[in-house]
Design a protein that fits this description.
The protein has 1217 residues and is an alpha/beta fold. Helix content is 43%, strand content 12%. It contains 32 helices and 26 strands. The strands form four sheets. Strands 8, 9, 10, 11, 12, 13, 14, 15, 16, 17 and 20 form an eleven-stranded mixed beta sheet that branches. A hairpin with a 4-residue loop joins β12 (578-586) and β13 (591-598). α7 (279-313) runs antiparallel to α8, α8 packs antiparallel against α27 and α28 runs antiparallel to α31. The chain is elongated.
Length: 1217
């Protein structure tokens, strides 16, 4: 054959050795370097340029955040209050005589209010800025190490490209072929695709090495991003012989030029979505509208009317009137609304959020590294609804504190605290959407379920096999399986020899693993073909010593890309029919044997008989139909089938040279690619890797097997096949031909095999996934699985997950005008389920809400999944998406969900979050880009129960934080009501401004923040979360609760103030009743020193009593509904210490305030004041708190019952009874 010129030179010269069995790539000759592929340096430069360009176009604008913070109503009122305080200080300097000490205090108050205002404005601007920039900063944190360390150039061709959740492709760079994630391909890259591979971006078929644009006379073959490469792309009939020739030369691999850089699209999707506001944010927005707007202005209006009336009826001279007016009409109003101003609340929110994020992140890291098992709570009765099991971990509080500070100092963007609202979103999650399965909620490769053998009558024998996903052990479920050992032995030997995991060298892997023989590089094969079943072979009884007697001599990759069944298979079931045959030499007998595994159709076409455990039986049409029925049933149950065959090889004259023994220690075993005759027209020839033709005998094309069609139902009968001529090997003839080269000989060796059996494999949920889904339902979280498979297969897998598969259990998201048959079950049609995601909203509006209660959606595409997530969010659901960190199609959904969690599908990603030492692994970089919108990533071997424990702690932190804010706001409001009640009772201010600020900044925050250390409620994961809609519907009920809980402290505090003011004021003796309106009757600007000291003593006494009562009330706020007897407050040790410190601190403040001049003694107070204020009042007030909580608990339980009923009810208007 003449030497090929440049028009037929293909990249097979650049590939690794045949079949990719050797990990290092070969270097091309210099004469082939004219091929237009990119170098690694140029590709990296283009990748970085694309990332920088996208980041530059998505720079967030923070000016709107600054304007909003400055023009906010509360900001304006706070600024006006500070100016009013300064004005009063100036007036006091001019008008007071003798000098009023409180005037100096007012200046200090003004300074503190202004400082608080500036702090809050800066904090809000900073948070708005970082919220806008957080995603960009997250992506920059990925790009910068790439700029510094570069991308690793080490090729890894054994990574699986046929796993649905792993977006990998083969790319030509630096004269080698490397495996890269989709998002690392750049424009003008040469992408190597085999039939069945998915296009990483928009690509165009390369006609020659010197291709820069499609030739004028040739057609342009283009694949869009995500499109499956099928033989139908080359739609010309008959097929272009040039293309077929190149395919054979390149061993089934085609070369395409990338027309775009997919990273642009990835980053644009990650940066282009805005997540919904969290439940906490929306609740606070409603609260702020009522609290900081309506309540504040209402109280201000009432205070102004009262003080104006008080000022108007007071009989004083004109000068005194002016002096008194400054205090009545200005200062008193400021003091009334000062507790309502959000001076501290923004900081409290920031602290609570940062502490919660730090605790959740530390818990997440601890769960990732902990080796202990999850344990159930032993105190829960086995018949009760038990919460999910947890790990008893002790967090490193030094690490928690460091991460807490990092959010202020270094702005940690590793978990998107601001963008996702991490704690609030996790705590409020109502739906967990699994948007893929391989390697996320299931093992990355299928597990064996059944083995089919044939008995002496040709009838199938099915043995059930159970694989323990946690212990990684395989066992036969049938007790009498050993009676089939004669049939199982050759199959077991096949399983052990036909793998490259090192089993025949004694390395039996304990974990679930896959093959890495590179067979998938020549054409797509189902993931079941990559599952290694060496443990099953070991269970059958083969030892390591038995396998050491075999040495591999040759690997044969046989593909049929144009098999008639290929055109009719949908993407979910699509594969290129193929099988892998390997020739071994048994060292003891020096004999050669061929073991094959692969596509059932091709294996049966290559077999003439079957092994029944005793002898050989004829593989006739009747026996083949029984095998086909088994395969059809397996496909219905979402299983994959792999057939196994065997044949001995006699060392005859045609095979003598080819079967020359090679040493076991040989470095590389050469593989050979051939095309099965069923893939071509009659009488056609196929080309081997070297370009020589291997003639194959003609045969009628096999009819499409019904096992390969997903549009048929179980009730449909298989179409009868015409009798077909089976492939018989020429080397088995009496007079075998002698003029056979190696390629032709391999084509003959794979014929005339003996059928051994079939393994049925299916995806099994990872350990604990089924229990995890069940436990989520107890906690009011619906697990939703989006399946790309048709309805029948989706229900089969859903049943393994433990999901319901009866009526109203599955909705198809594909449109009705698609190629799929639609709903198959009659009852589903009666239920009038919507067909297509575009019909969901209409169904929710016009029919019922069944789509919100369904846990299974079938025939899903990425676009339909995204739209369904939007629908969930529109209906008030808080969506948490979990999916593969290497699935490029997940990025948009990750960005849209309220919170997303990536799961690494491959164990090779386990070290990607650790500090970098040297070039970055492409796998780690691709996963980092694809999972950039996710809060965090779970390792492949991390239990899914880690997520439930994280949600549990998030719920605890969220509940504690909500109670903390409620307590703080209630205390602030009570201060405001105390001040206005004093105005109504014609009393001086109960508290000075600096005392109010002392309470707001020093006393209440530590007591409030101590709530965050409340222990976990064991029942928190059995409660129904509130949806992200109709927030604070019971706001008037909560207002009534506030009145009932705080009317006592308000009255007691004002009463103590009035009594102590009357008793301390000896300069102008008053009875308790005369003090109302009588104190400072002449003018408050002219109080004597003793009157000022009497006022200060009374204010400090009232302040101490109020603080003491708030400490007692805080004990009842630690839990919203549980009584003090059920959940004693001392279980929160931090609160207990803080409560004691708070009372002591207030006592010190009182002592320091009264120390300059001991004008009065507290002993002058009547004994009953101490009894009422320090003993009786706390007891009565705590009792009132408990009474209110009883009522609130009843309402809460009603809400829980309604929510559980709604959650568990799936019946719709048209559902069958």
């Amino acid at each position: 054959m003449p030497s090929p010129d440049h028009e037929v030179i293909e990249v097979h010269e650049l590939r690794t050795t045949a079949s990719y069995d050797v990990p290092l790539a070969a270097v091309a000759d210099e004469k082939y370097l004219a091929y237009h592929h990119l170098s690694g340096d140029e590709a990296q430069r283009r990748l970085l340029a694309a990332a920088d360009e996208v980041l530059a176009t998505h720079q967030g604008h923070t000016r709107d955040g600054a304007i909003s913070a400055i023009t906010k109503q509360s900001t304006v009122v706070t600024g006006a209050s500070a100016l009013g305080l300064i004005g009063f200080f100036i007036a006091a300097q001019l008008l007071s005589s003798p000098y009023q000490w409180r005037a100096t205090g007012v200046l200090v108050e003004a300074i503190i209010v202004l400082a608080s205002l500036l702090w809050n404005v800066w904090l809000q601007i900073r948070e708005a800025k970082f919220t806008v920039m957080e995603m960009s900063m997250r992506i920059r944190s990925i790009v910068e190490p790439l700029k510094k360390n570069g991308l690793s150039r080490k090729p890894d061709l054994k990574l699986p490209t046929s796993i649905g959740t792993v977006s990998l492709c083969r790319v030509v760079r630096d004269q080698t072929i490397v495996t890269l994630p989709f998002n690392l391909v750049v424009r003008d890259d040469i992408v190597q695709l085999a039939y069945g591979d998915t296009a990483p971006c928009r690509v165009r078929y390369v006609n020659s090495h010197f291709d820069t644009a499609p030739t004028a006379e040739g057609p342009e073959y283009v694949l869009e991003k995500g499109q499956v490469f099928r033989p139908s792309l080359f739609a010309s009939s008959p097929l272009d012989p040039t293309i077929m020739r190149r395919a054979a030369l390149n061993e089934g691999q085609f070369h395409f030029r990338a027309l775009e850089t997919p990273l642009r699209d990835t980053l644009s999707k990650a940066l282009g979505f805005k997540r919904p506001e969290t439940v906490v944010q929306r609740q606070f927005a409603v609260l702020a509208d009522y609290y900081f707007t309506r309540l504040m202005w209402g109280i201000l209006g009432v205070a102004f009317l009262v003080n104006a009336l008080r000022y108007g009826i007071r009989e004083t001279g004109e000068k005194a009137k002016l002096q008194q007016g400054v205090e009545y009409l200005l200062l008193m109003q400021i003091y009334v609304i000062l507790p309502l101003l959000p001076l501290v609340v923004p900081t409290l929110f920031m602290i609570i959020r940062s502490f919660g994020n730090a605790q959740i992140l530390s818990l997440f890291d601890a769960l990732q590294t902990s080796k202990t098992e999850f344990e159930d709570n032993e105190d829960i009765d086995e018949f009760d609804s038990a919460p999910p099991p947890t790990k008893d971990l002790v967090l490193d509080w030094a690490l928690v504190w460091k991460r807490f500070l990092d959010q202020f100092v270094q702005v940690d963007v590793s978990f998107l605290a601001r963008t996702t609202g991490l704690v609030a979103s996790l705590a409020s999650t109502t739906v967990i959407c699994a948007i893929d399965r391989e390697g996320t909620i299931s093992l990355p490769t299928p597990s064996v379920e059944q083995l089919l053998l044939l008995d002496t009558d040709g009838d199938p024998v099915v043995l059930d096999v159970l694989e323990d996903t946690s212990g990684h052990a395989i066992n036969f479920e049938d007790r009498d399986w050993q009676q089939y050992l004669p049939s199982l032995k050759p199959l077991g030997l096949n399983l052990l020899l036909n793998t490259d995991c090192g089993a025949h060298h004694g390395r039996i892997r304990p974990e679930h693993h896959r093959k890495s023989n590179g067979h998938h590089a020549h054409g797509r094969v189902r993931p079941g073909r990559q599952a290694c079943l060496c443990q099953l072979g070991r269970e059958i009884g083969f030892s390591v010593e038995a396998m050491r007697g075999f040495s591999l001599q040759k690997s044969i990759h046989c593909f049929a890309p144009h098999h008639p069944t290929v055109a009719k298979v949908p993407d979910y079931h699509f594969e290129i029919p193929s099988f892998l045959s390997q020739i071994f030499q048994e060292t003891a007998s020096q004999s050669f044997q061929l073991f094959s595994e692969g596509n059932v159709d091709l294996i049966m076409e290559s077999c003439s008989d079957y092994w029944n455990g005793k002898t050989l039986g004829v593989l006739d049409e009747a026996t083949e139909k029984k095998i086909t029925d088994f395969c059809q049933n397996a496909l219905i149950n979402d299983a994959q089938v792999v057939a196994f065959a065997y044949r001995p090889i006699e060392n005859t004259k045609p095979t003598a040279l080819f079967l020359k023994p090679r040493p076991v220690s040989a470095a590389a075993i050469e593989g050979l690619y051939i095309e099965h005759p069923g893939s071509r027209a009659l009488g056609s020839t196929t080309l081997s890797a070297s370009g020589s033709a291997a003639s194959l005998p003609p045969e009628e094309p096999p009819q499409p097997s019904s096992a390969s069609s997903t549009s048929s139902t179980p009730s449909e009968k298989l179409r009868p096949k015409p009798p077909k001529k089976r492939y018989l090997s020429n080397i088995d003839r009496v007079r075998p031909p002698v003029a056979l080269d190696e390629k032709q000989l391999c084509s003959e060796l794979v014929k005339g095999q003996t059928f051994l059996g079939i393994a049925s494999l299916a995806y099994q949920p990872k350990g604990n996934v089924v229990d995890f889904i069940e436990d989520l339902g107890i906690g009011g979280i619906r697990f939703v699985y989006f399946s790309s498979a048709p309805e029948r297969e989706s229900k089969a897998y859903a049943e393994r997950l433990g999901l319901e598969i009866d009526w109203n259990s599955c909705i198809l998201l594909s449109s009705a005008n698609g190629d799929t048959p639609g709903y198959l079950e009659e009852h589903d049609m009666k239920a009038r389920l919507p067909r297509g995601v575009d019909k969901i909203r209409d169904h929710l509006r016009d029919v019922d809400d069944v789509p919100l209660h369904v846990s299974l959606f079938a025939e899903c595409e990425p676009a339909s999944i995204i739209e369904m997530v939007r629908i969930f969010q529109e209906q008030g659901e808080v969506v948490c998406c979990i999916g593969s960190s290497l699935n490029e199609m997940n990025v948009e959904c990750f960005s849209l969900a309220d919170v997303s969690i990536a799961i690494d599908p491959l164990s090779a990603l386990k070290l990607r979050n650790y500090p970098l030492n040297g070039p970055i692994s492409p796998l780690s970089l691709g996963a980092a880009f694809a999972s950039s919108p996710c809060a965090f990533s779970l390792h492949s071997d991390t239990s899914i129960y880690s997520l439930s424990q994280i949600i549990r702690d998030a719920r605890t932190i969220s509940d504690s934080g909500r109670q903390a804010i409620a307590f703080y706001l209630a205390c602030q409001t009570s201060l405001s009501f105390i001040m206005i009640l004093a105005c109504c009772m014609l009393l001086p201010p109960v508290f000075a401004g600096y005392q109010l600020l002392w309470i707001m900044w020093i006393i209440l925050p530590p007591l409030t923040l101590s709530f965050l250390f409340s222990p976990n409620d064991p029942n928190v994961m059995t409660r129904m979360p509130a949806k992200n809609s109709e927030h604070l519907k019971d706001k008037w009920r909560f207002a009534a609760y506030f009145a009932a809980r705080f009317i006592g402290p308000i009255l007691v505090t004002v009463g103590v103030f009035a009594v102590t003011l009357a008793e301390f004021n000896d300069a102008t003796p008053f009875t308790t009743t005369d003090i109302f309106g009588g104190f400072g009757n002449s003018n408050w600007m002219h109080l004597t020193d003793r009157e000022q000291w009497a006022l200060l003593y009374a204010q400090n006494c009232a302040l101490f009593v109020w603080v003491l009562l708030m400490v007692f009330i805080s004990a009842t706020f630690l839990d919203r509904t549980a009584s003090l007897r059920k959940r004693p407050p001392y279980h929160n040790r931090i609160w207990a210490v803080t409560a004691v410190v708070t009372v002591a601190l207030q006592a010190i403040f009182m002592a320091v305030s009264l120390a300059p001049a001991r004008v009065y003694s507290l002993s002058v107070l009547s004994w009953w004041v101490y009894v009422v204020a320090l003993a009786a009042a706390p007891v009565i007030i705590v009792a009132a708190q408990e009474v209110v909580k009883v009522h609130d608990r009843r309402e809460w339980e009603k809400f829980q019952k309604r929510s559980k009923l709604e959650f568990n009810t799936k019946l719709g208007m048209h559902s069958p009874l």
